[in-house]
Specification:
Blueprint (H helix, E strand, L loop, with lengths): L1 H22 L17 H12 L29 H5 L5 E7 L1 E4 L1 H11 L2 E4 L9 E6 L9 E5 L3 E5 L3 H11 L3 E4 L2 H6 L2 E7 L7 E3 L4 E4 L6 H41 L6 H21 L13 H13 L2 H60 L1
Parallel strand pairs: 8-10
Antiparallel strand pairs: 1-6, 1-8, 2-7, 3-4, 4-5, 5-6, 9-10
Amino acid sequence: MTLFISRIASLSFRQVTKTVASNIPDILPARTYFIPKKNDLFRIGQQLFRNYSNDNIQPTTMAMDNTSLPLKKKTVHKKAVLEDLKKKEGHYLTLAYATAYSYDLKALREGLLQQKLYEPGTLKAQEIGDVVVANAVYTIGDEPREIIFFREGAVVFWNCTELEANNVLDFTRQFEEESYPRDVVKKEREVMTYQYQNNAKRCYLQDQESSFVLVPNNDNSLERYTFSHAMAQSARLGAWEARLEALAADVRSHATVMEKEGASHVEKKEVVRKLGELFILRHRLNVESDLLDTPDFYWEEERLERLYSSTVAYFTIPRRTRVLNERLSHCVELLELLSSWAADRHHVRLEWMVIALILAEVCFELLHCCERYFFDR
């Protein structure tokens, strides 16, 4: 009886609901709810962004293709040509080489004294301690010849010929630590000239002629050191760029094998060795060198700081340092991928060894079972 009454009440309620709904006028328009597709979310965000911006950029569709993106190559500044600089009248030659990671300056000074061709000297500034300045004992002409050795493995020649510079480089080879290849040393050298101008009141860089302007009849030793320091920094950076080129070539060969064969056969020990070389190069670039900031010596010497900054900008050292760091990061990422691949291969090899041992144990157990079975019979 209760079930029958509940059904009658339910039917009556439905009839009343239909009647009321039919008498309500259609005041509000029908709403259409739009649910965007997953691929249209970024397009909607772009439209909303352009509606609230003040520019007149029209929405465009650009296809991203990796083949159309240019590869980042080594950033090289325009170097002066030695043959062209020799032809300029009133200009003296300046050469900068980076031959090694560092010099043993104490032994180098003693070697110069024993050789008796160059007399070691010192600069007036007491803050400069990692430098040996050598003046030629035998003069040729009125302009003296000077050589500045930096502890960081760089040497700068003032008014020296290329032949004399090569002889000095052969002499300093015994005092080098972690020497660079000779082809890299010659390729990454920096060539400039210097001149004296009678009307010059201060030293400056004349970038259009690749020349340093010095004040005549004046002590320009600190200015020479500043110019030499910037040239040495550029030569050192060039040697590190060449080293990264060699490391990147090895990494590129492994990437080519991965592309063609879909696998890499490099050993983990080799990958770790390459990673160590890249990390050492990054440490020397960002921690041990002064390429990212102006050295402390120039902070109290405003005129020398301006000279150093202008010379560093001429050799595009900040931009080259930034690009070198980016390329180092890319090579490290690729080598880390190869390292993980080699680790996975090692783990798979260990798993197969464990499986082989388990199968051998199962085979021995089966043999023991068969042996007990036949002996029991």
